[in-house]
Amino acid sequence: KQKIIEKKAALKEQGMSGGQCNKDPEVVAMVARMQELKIKEDPTLAEGDKKEGKKKEKKLSAESEAEKRKLEQEIEEYRVKLQTEFQYTKKEISADPDMVDMLAKLKAFK
């Protein structure tokens, strides 16, 4: 690890940017070797490389974006209504069937 840091520092002194340093063949080889050693030490790290759950968020169309905002507004209005008119607690609001349905619809947008 220290050798990688020293090599990158030397490359930066030569005028390379950080991205260029990372693409240097020697640095790439050293980083790959370090990863192999880490995986040998702890095999569970190999699974972490797959970048699970880091999907790129889908861009919503303007129409569905408007629907989503409308639904968020309806949810907020309903939440306020439950708190003011019916004196619901947060726990009761989260258990309310209509609120659960609306939140499920909102989650489908995301």
Question: How would you describe this protein?
Answer:
With 110 residues, the protein is mainly alpha-helical. It has helices spanning 2-13, 18-23, 25-41, 45-48, 62-84, 90-95, 97-109. Helix 1 (2-13) packs antiparallel against helix 3 and helix 5 (62-84) packs antiparallel against helix 7. The radius of gyration is 25 Å and the shape is elongated.
Tally of contiguous helical segments: 7
Overall helicity: over 70%
Task: Write down the Rg.
Answer: 25 Å
Beginning-to-end CA distance, first to last residue: 39 Å
Total strand segments: 0
Summarize model confidence as the mean pLDDT: 79
What's the overall geometry? elongated
Main beta sheet strand tally, sense and closure: none
Short description:
The chain has 110 residues and is mainly alpha-helical.
Write the layout of secondary structure elements.
Blueprint: H1 2-13, H2 18-23, H3 25-41, H4 45-48, H5 62-84, H6 90-95, H7 97-109
Helix pairs in contact: 1-3, 5-7
Tag the structure with descriptive keywords.
110 residues, mainly alpha, 7 helices, elongated
